[in-house]
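Protocol step 4 of 5: obtain the predicted structure for the target chain.
Materials: sequence only (see below). No template structures provided, no constraints applied. The aim of this step is simply to have a reference model before the mutagenesis design in step 5. Sequence pasted as it appears in the construct record:
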Amino acid sequence: MKDEFEKLNSDLGKRLREFPDVQADTVFKDKLRSKILAGHTRKSKRGRSRGFSLFIRLGSVAAVLVVMLAGWLAFFNPGKDSNRPNVGPLFMAQAQASNTPVPQITLGSGLDGLRQVQFKMQGDMPAGLEEGNVYRYKNEVMTAQKALELARRLGISNAELVEDGSNIPENRHIYIAGQNADLTVWPFQGSWYYFGHPDGATGGGQLTVSEMENAALEWLKAAGLLPQEDFNVEHTMQEPQAADVVLTEIVLTLPEAPNGLALNGYIPEIRVTVTSGGKVTQANGTWYSEEQAIEMPFADYNEALEALKRGEGVFEAPNYRHYQTGTATIQRVQTAYQLAYAIDYTPYLIPVAVFSGEYKPEGEPGDQFTALVPLLKNNVRPNSGNFALQTKLPVVDSALTSVIERGVAVSKSEIPQLAAFFNIKGQPLEDGSIRDASAEISPTSWDGGWLYRANINAQIQSPDSNRISEGKAMEIATGLVQQIPVLPGEPGAPVVKDDGSGFSLVVFPLLYSGVAITSSDPPGFASYIAVQLGPEGDVWSVNCFRPMQAVPEEKPLLTPEQAWDKLLVNKSQIHVEGFFGSMPGDRFVADSSSVTAVELAYIPRHPEMMRNDNYDLVYVFTGQAQVGERLVNFTAYVDAVKESS
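Step 4 output (structure tokens):
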């Protein structure tokens, strides 16, 4: 084993050294630096590194399985009552089930994970509050000019606006660079992140922890960021940057909800890291001031438990394992408050039921668990989204075959034929790949597909000024894909996407029996062929991602009209663009929702997993919804397979 590892290490080093020298373009380098700093991570109370954006997605690789850890955003609507104020639909940054105690790093399960957990109540269910307050908080959207003013108050010298993404849905951050520090602001969430440069924010000293706390509070006060409300202060010692420099993180949190009940979650809070010399090295914060208390009827604990059983809410236990069955015995129930957001990012504190007790996986010892479910009532009105059909329903067959993911062995067997097509000379290596001086093609074990990569021996320049037109990119990519000798499915209509590099990426969904595998994540398909083109239209890479194969058994389908009827009685899953995850149809409420496209598609049953054993046939209804003053893009999924009688 040691010899094999040393051989692998030597081969990897050799291949890395064979890469050509790259002369970085300074404009492109500055843009890349901006993006990296905008996504900078920080330390949590438990010492874990976590992304700071409110709605984050993290990746974890285990063997060939890639698990997407996502903040599952449940949709909560208090319902419309003419005698009470209506706060509108609310999102909570949360996930379904997890074995980690950090709330925003939890494992979403597409409303299926919690169904593996059986809940039972030990004793009688206590009575909860019949009504109470929802607290709306102020959140002024920050402009680029206000962000610049904040940067100067924070002591950033020569502050300049580098990137104003406040009007770009995929970006939504403002980045400011200075001589001694940088600042990133998320204008809609009201969040900010300050990062001091090492040469401008360090220095030795002998300040006590109390003096370091005072330095942090004075720094916040000078910037106008010190909360006016009462707050708790915690101290966490950090790893020293040098022998004479001590770092302490000062954490400000709300002590409780306005009505005295406990708070759940990690926001609102402000974190400031200070050296023993009194210098701030980094800081971030999300803090709101109360604006209005709104009295609302609450769901009772039994209703909350039923919502938990059907897959809503959060479940956290150290011994939880994905897909594993187990029993959660509820021993205690109480009401707490947690932050939620309206579609326009207005923050609210809403009531949640906190269930706790012992979770015992099947055949394993038990451990403590905590489960959270909002106490805002479900909507009971039919067609709560006010859907209106603005297009024709498709014509579909009465039955259709299922699909499963194709094994990597099939891709390995196709590599020689594909290598000949791409004019790569050589014999297959042990891993199935074939390479020569011009390019290489290899199977991809993580998704069962394959990847072609050209050996690019050219100066990397700023891509935006050299990109070919979309029309030309589609023409080149279409001509190439039509000639590929072996494909698992039929290429669909291509779309040009931004792959983050700035160069042209043309994506073709792969169709199986004329049906695509869809996804709410970019590029919108879960099985596809992607062609990346260089600035002169030369082919840089071709990726066959997650190939599928048909299963002979056919499944009887609902008609599109029957699926539409199910949508109108809230029997659907809804995804809102810009928010991760989906929510039950009876949690979605809109003033109006125009459906402009309807199609039949396959979707992975567990979209957060790289590999799936099951793909479900669904009708996909897409369009725009008017929610308050905001227009949002939505996708509604309705099961397409007839229920067995």
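Step 4 remarks: The helical segments are 2-17, 26-38, 144-153, 209-223, 301-309, 408-421, 470-481, 560-568. Residues 103 and 265 are 6 Å apart (CA to CA).
Proceed to step 5.
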